Amino acid sequence: MTLKEDWGAHAGAGGGAEDAAGDGKLNLSWTKYFPACSTQPWQLEGALNTLFEDDQVAIHAIAAKIMGFDPLAIPYLRLCHERGLGVGDPREIEIVGDDVAGVSMSFQTRRSLVIWGDQLIRRGPLRPLKRLLLHWPLMVWAPFASNVYHDLLWYPTIGRARIRAFAKTAWGRLFDSY
């Protein structure tokens, strides 16, 4: 799940602090060892590839700021910052390399079908079934459903065109050069 999707999952969601902290812990533990798995190509250039390799909260905070979001308004980043799991306040983060202080890509978020379904289970009317759907052997349905949605529905109808458009930009050409 990318930071943009994380934000979309939590923006306006009525989940409690524990849900956000748990989501942050899962996301940050995965990206500690695979930071590029949760980033866009432009995030790999300049400052972020040298930024605090052991502070994934800081990396996500700066990525959120570059995307145009207030990192401390993102529940899991704010909670991680408050609990001392990393630095989530961009004013407290030293960036080495390109100056990104004034960069804002003005991202906007929407809920995808996958996020909507996830919120029904974690915070909505399907919450009583959460343990059954997400913590038992049946939980393999969630990644399967995500793969079906993204690979068979979203990518052919929406994603392919977006990737082609991205490939024509300066960032797309930079990504192709890697």
What does this structure look like?
The chain is mostly helical. The protein is built from eight helices and no strands. The protein has helices at residues 3-10, 17-33, 56-67, 75-82, 113-122, 130-135, 141-167, 170-176. α7 (141-167) packs across α8 (170-176). The longest helix is centred in the last third of the chain and has 27 residues, at 141-167. It is flat, with a radius of gyration of 17 Å. It starts with a helix and ends with a helix.
Termini separation comes to: 22 Å
State the share of residues found in helices, binned by percent.
40-55%
Largest sheet, in brief, is:
none
Mean pLDDT: 75
Number of domains: 2
Oligomer: single chain
Please report the number of helical segments. 8
Taken as a percent bin, the fraction of beta residues is under 5%
- Note the run of SSEs as H and E: HHHHHHHH
What would you call the shape? flat
Please tell me how large the radius of gyration is.
17 Å
Structural class: mainly alpha
Poorly predicted tracts of residues: 10-52
Number of strands: 0
SSE blueprint and pairings:
Layout: H1 3-10, H2 17-33, H3 56-67, H4 75-82, H5 113-122, H6 130-135, H7 141-167, H8 170-176
Please tag this protein with its features.
flat; single chain; 178 residues; 2 domains
Describe the structure concisely for a colleague.
By secondary structure, the chain is mainly α.
